[in-house]
Design a protein that fits this description.
CATH class: Alpha Beta
Largest sheet: 8 strands, mixed
CATH architecture: Alpha-Beta Complex
Structural class: alpha+beta
Number of strands: 8
Order of helices and strands: EHEHEEHEEEEHH
Strand content: 15-25%
Distance between the termini: 8 Å
Radius of gyration: 17 Å
């Protein structure tokens, strides 16, 4: 079964491939089908953005299409950067997480609580839509640590693992992360509806 992942982010594809291990799906990116350009995320929620991407690329490809929208919600920043996480600052991941650390300068550890949230949407060629959500609670560290993952992983400290998300093994991350939790719920949908 060919399944289109509505992203150009290869790091996200690696995670989804690992999360869907064991399912007989070939995970494609838009580039694999000659579909270029980004779908503009104009929604006001993760759900709206995930559905927008899945519907747009599903219609363009004719394939079952999976999209997710994720973000980092920092309590001391009233939930920011939230749905704007990928656009919090222009530049590489390090530019964004360093801007976040600057915004939290002087905030004590007990007030640096945060969560990663992921909403996944699966849109089928017949128009049916399925959505799932996953959340991973943590704390924003005072400095980056670790080389793994992408995005805000180097500054997202996972208390139950006593390290940042960037220091987790792929196996552990693919069990605990927000995307992993959304994917676990989506596996059942894929099995029931596509396979």
């Amino acid at each position: 079964m060919r399944l289109l992942l509505a992203t150009h982010n290869r790091g996200k594809r690696r995670e989804w491939q690992a999360l869907l291990t064991g399912l007989p799906v070939e995970l494609l990116l838009p580039d694999d089908l000659g579909l270029s350009g980004e779908v503009e995320e104009t929604g006001e929620t993760y759900l709206e953005n995930a559905l927008l991407k899945a519907r747009t690329l599903g219609a363009a490809s004719g394939l079952p299409t999976l999209a997710d929208d994720s973000g980092l919600e920092v309590d001391a920043l009233d939930g920011a950067p939230g749905i704007h996480s990928a656009r919090y600052r222009l530049g590489a991941d390090a530019v964004r997480y360093r801007a976040l650390l600057r915004a939290l300068e002087g905030v004590p550890p007990e007030k640096r609580t945060a969560r990663f949230r992921c909403v996944a949407a699966l849109v089928l060629p017949d128009g049916r839509e399925f959505t799932t959500e996953g959340v991973c609670e943590g704390v924003i560290a005072t400095e980056p640590s670790g080389e793994g993952g992408f995005g805000y992983d180097p500054v997202f400290y996972v208390p139950e693992q006593d390290c940042t998300m960037a220091k987790l093994s792929d196996e552990t991350k693919n069990r605990l992360s927000h995307r992993a939790r959304a994917a676990q719920a989506l596996r059942a949908v894929l099995l029931a509806e596509l396979l």
